[in-house]
Write a structure and sequence with these properties.
The structure is a single chain. The chain has helices at residues 42-49, 72-77, 95-103, 113-118, 123-141, 157-169, 187-204, 215-221, 239-244, 246-253, 258-262; strands at residues 4-13, 16-26, 31-35, 57-62, 65-66, 80-83, 175-179, 207-211, 224-229, 232-237. The two termini are 35 Å apart. A hairpin with a 2-residue loop joins strand 9 (224-229) and strand 10 (232-237). The strands form 2 sheets. The protein has a 6-stranded mixed β-sheet, sandwiched between helices. Strands 2-1-4-5 form a 4-stranded antiparallel β-sheet, with helices on one face. Helix 3 (95-103) packs parallel to helix 6. The protein has 11 helices and 10 strands. The protein is of the alpha/beta class and 263 residues long. It folds into 2 domains: 1-79 and 174-202 and 213-263, P-loop containing nucleotide triphosphate hydrolases (Rossmann fold, 3-Layer(aba) Sandwich), CATH 3.40.50; 92-173, no CATH class. The structure holds adenosine-5'-triphosphate. Residues 13, 16, 18, 36, 38-44 line the site of adenosine-5'-triphosphate.
Length: 263
């Protein structure tokens, strides 16, 4: 059974096929990148995977379990987390509180309330202590200790993106969807984010599915790359294979020489 398999996925907006028979597999614990020009269908594919859109046809399976037709919350509980292009954090809340929001999928009692209302020795209190411990482990893994008690709204952009990654990881995903995690970052922040993405794979064993426009990043960190154009897969393979694919440069950047475009 494949870890993650998409088969014959199609999605229409009026007469436009945003996804047209898309199929691929992501191996467990790998970094899999999706590239393609504007309008290729990348975001639509992510939206179908995490249940924001319901595809017209096709299937999306994680460890054999069908995701299509399920609500985003149910899909998150099944092990698929996501970060967005724009930062979607609660800016007035601290780093720890934002990570605890990621843990709420696992909580039997209400968020925060249990521990405050019934004391740390109650079931709810013990549960909160456990979740705080898990969140603290992530803070350490992502080297966010200096920012732990600070409202995230005042933190530098690169750190906020790291917090967002942490909140998605707090859901203990098997697969994490990262939508342009390096967008708007300076060179140092990009290097840092690449390091963190590698950590997700190596330390946590989660598979990473990445949309990224920066080819240097894609070629550096990906185990496999899928190229899409006009809602269809154009090529798939290792970074080297994709770079050498005759159709890729023309389809992706409208140029003839792949070496010029994807180096
Ligand atoms: N909600 C929508 N309603 C109508 N058309 C849409 C909608 N969302 C996307 N589309 C269209 O579907 C196609 C695929 O769009 P999508 O946003 O998935 O592409 P993309 O590869 O993510 O592009 P970008 O790199 O610009 O984010 C485009 O032609 C787009 O205009």
């Amino acid at each position: 059974m494949a870890f993650f398999r998409v088969e014959k996925l199609s999605m229409w907006f009026g007469g436009l096929a945003a996804l047209d028979g898309v199929g691929f597999e992501i191996p467990p614990g790998s970094i899999f990148s999706l590239i393609g020009p504007n309008g290729a269908g990348k975001t639509t594919l992510f939206n179908c995977i995490n249940g924001i859109y319901k595809p017209a046809s096709g299937s999306i399976r994680l460890n054999g379990r069908e995701l299509t037709g399920k609500k985003p919350h149910a899909i998150a509980q099944m092990g698929v987390a996501r970060t967005f292009q724009n930062i979607e954090l609660f800016s007035q809340m601290t780093l720890m509180e934002n990570l605890m929001l990621g843990r709420h999928l696992f909580m039997k009692t209400g968020l925060f309330r249990g521990g405050f209302m019934w004391g740390r020795k109650s079931f709810a209190g013990r549960e909160e202590v456990l979740h705080r411990k898990k969140a603290a482990e992530l803070i350490e893994l992502l080297e966010l200790q200096p920012y732990r008690g600070r409202p995230v709204g005042g933190l530098p952009y690169g750190i906020q993106k790291r917090v967002e990654l942490g909140r998605a990881l707090a859901m203990e995903p098997k697969l994490i969807l990262l939508d342009e995690p390096c967008a708007g970052m300076n060179a140092e922040e990009r290097r840092d984010m690449i390091l963190r993405i590698k950590t997700v794979k190596e330390a946590l064993g989660a598979a990473v599915f990445l949309i990224e426009h920066d080819m240097a990043i894609v070629m550096d960190i990906s185990d496999q790359v899928l190229v899409m154009n006009f809602g269809k897969p154009v090529a798939q393979g290792t970074p080297g294979q994709v770079q050498a694919h005759p159709e890729v440069a023309a389809a992706y950047l409208g140029e003839d020489d792949p070496d010029d475009c994807l180096a």
